[in-house]
Write a structure and sequence with these properties.
Blueprint: E1 30-35, H1 39-43, H2 45-54, E2 61-66, H3 71-76, E3 83-89, E4 92-98, E5 101-106, H4 111-119, E6 125-128, H5 148-155, H6 163-177, E7 183-186, H7 193-206, H8 210-219, E8 225-228, H9 236-246, E9 254-256, E10 261-265, E11 281-283, H10 287-311, H11 316-320, H12 323-336, H13 348-359, H14 368-372, H15 375-392, H16 398-413, H17 428-434, H18 441-452, H19 461-485
Parallel strand pairs: 1-2, 1-6, 2-5, 3-9, 6-7, 10-11
Antiparallel strand pairs: 3-4, 8-10
């Protein structure tokens, strides 16, 4: 391999087996600004846009914005925004170079440039993958108005730090200039993500100006969407292998699976790409698809992560190959499926069969520790919501509550059975202050429910706490095997 980088200049010299953009990138006009250019965006939305550009829709190039770190910009900048996408299954790997990201901005380095890109009349859609914690919600679900970054952005609208600040200030500038608002398309795993972001931005704008808040509430479209593709973290070995196959260096290739799904509410007053031509499902109501994905895929992913960590399994495929964990996931799905809408045509049998195949993909090496991050932000919509619905319907969510208990136990295991910072959570400082390891299982479960706002205000809350506490006690005394035995699941060597 040479020491040359992947770039516009080296693109045509790549091996014939590597798919490359079949369009003139110099003729592409940026029409989308994306906030949060992580690996998931580059495996998902950017790939769909690449398909549209290949089909001749030249006005939908992407301006990528990193809200925090310059890492992605540092990697992709010298590569003209190009990167390789490695689609891996247990028996094969295909390489594709994606060219839809035209430029990269780093918000902390130049917030003015980001505001300029958002205010540019050609920008008609703003997409977001900033992770659940970046929406800065308080425990009750509203905007965390005391968060230092929110306080900063309200005091310094020209120098924002948060997605809220950038979006509201740019919408204010567009309004003042007579430019049509862009459509805001949330692609994060939030319940009713479009409506949720809409509400948070209106709350934020109201703290600045009531007329601005009314404008955003009435004139800006916030379609919901559901995204699905497994994207494990790229390793040094991945970089070396991919660069060797390309014959040039790619500083940040992205690993992913063959499966890819995007369901989008069709509400784009300023126009949109013809996504439906490339497998995107455009619908009037994303809700049922979102619930199925959150409760069946994301919920079982969290279960596999925490039970896997506590069982010593480093990757999803290894944890899912554990017969006891595999049986537990079936039980989890059996509890969650009845909480989904029953009259909208969801094929849960086919969906869970696909999930089982995806979780068994040995080529992805999706680390359980990666999925374990930010549990306090993920579990409410992945696990707690369906547990509350199941309980209100008269059935116990025993499997569901084991996931919550496993999260608590995994947090307690850090610094002991697990490395200190093996995974992280926005509530880590508060969890450390609780020191739940010194509390009884019941007191620990109650304290964590209070801290994380789980089942807040729900009549079923005490029952859920009791179920989680009983599981936590078994996990503490006998590990995962004891907890699963209580559910009638026996380990393979029992």
């Amino acid at each position: 391999m040479t020491n040359r980088r992947l770039s516009n200049n080296t693109l045509q010299a790549l091996p014939a087996s590597v798919a490359i953009p079949g369009y003139d990138r110099d003729q592409i006009v940026p029409g989308i600004v994306h906030l949060g250019v992580g690996a998931f965006h580059r495996a998902h939305q950017a790939a769909y846009i690449d398909d549209c550009l290949m089909a001749g829709e030249t006005d939908w190039g992407i301006v990528g914005v990193s809200l925090r770190s310059a890492d992605t910009s540092d990697a992709l900048g010298p590569q003209d925004g190009l990167y390789s996408l490695a689609v891996r299954s247990s028996g094969s790997e295909g390489l594709r170079v994606v060219g839809s990201i035209l430029s990269m901005l780093v918000a902390p380095q130049d917030p003015g440039a980001v505001l300029a890109a958002l205010t540019e009349p050609r920008t008609r859609i703003v997409t977001l993958t900033i992770t659940e914690k970046a929406y800065l919600r308080a425990a009750g679900g509203g905007l965390d108005t005391a968060h230092p970054d929110i306080v900063h952005d309200l005091a310094n609208p020209d120098l924002p730090r948060t997605a809220h600040g950038f979006l509201v200030e740019s919408l204010s500038r567009r309004r003042a200039a007579g430019i049509q608002p862009f459509t805001v398309l949330c692609c994060d795993n939030l319940p009713a993500n479009g409506a949720t972001l809409h509400r948070l931005l209106v709350e934020f704008a109201a703290l600045r100006n009531t007329d601005l808040a009314r404008h955003i509430a009435d004139e800006v479209a916030f379609p919901s969407s559901m995204v699905d593709r497994i994207v494990p973290a790229t390793t040094g070995a991945d970089r070396a292998r991919i660069s060797g196959q390309l014959g040039v260096e790619d500083a940040w290739p992205v690993m992913t699976e063959p499966f890819c799904q995007w369901v989008v509410e069709d509400d784009f007053p300023a126009g949109r790409p013809a996504w439906e031509k490339f497998g995107v499902t455009m619908v009037g109501d994303v809700g049922p698809f979102e619930d199925m994905k959150l409760r069946l895929l994301n919920g079982s992913h969290s279960a596999i992560a925490y039970l896997g960590l506590l069982s010593g399994h480093e990757t999803v495929d290894r944890a899912f190959a554990d017969p006891a964990i595999r049986q537990f996931v079936d039980g989890l799905w059996a509890e969650a499926i009845p909480t989904l809408p029953q009259d909208v045509g969801l094929d849960t049998a086919d969906y869970t069969a696909q999930l089982a195949e995806r979780f068994s993909n040995t080529a992805l090496a999706h680390r359980t520790a990666q999925i374990a991050n930010d549990g306090s932000q993920k579990l409410p919509q992945r696990i707690v919501a369906s547990a509350m619905e199941r309980l209100s319907g008269g059935a116990l969510p025993a499997h569901l509550m084991l996931v919550v208990a496993a999260w608590i136990a995994a947090c307690e295991a850090r610094g002991n059975a697990l490395p200190e910072n093996h995974f992280t959570d926005p509530l880590d400082a508060a969890l450390a202050a609780l020191d739940t390891r010194r509390q009884s299982a019941k007191d620990a479960a109650m304290a964590v429910f209070d801290l994380a706002g789980f089942a807040k205000g729900g009549a079923e809350r005490l029952t859920l706490v009791d179920l989680a506490a009983a599981h936590l006690e078994r996990l503490r005394r006998g590990g995962v095997a004891a907890a699963l035995t209580a559910l009638g699941i026996q380990a393979a060597n029992d």
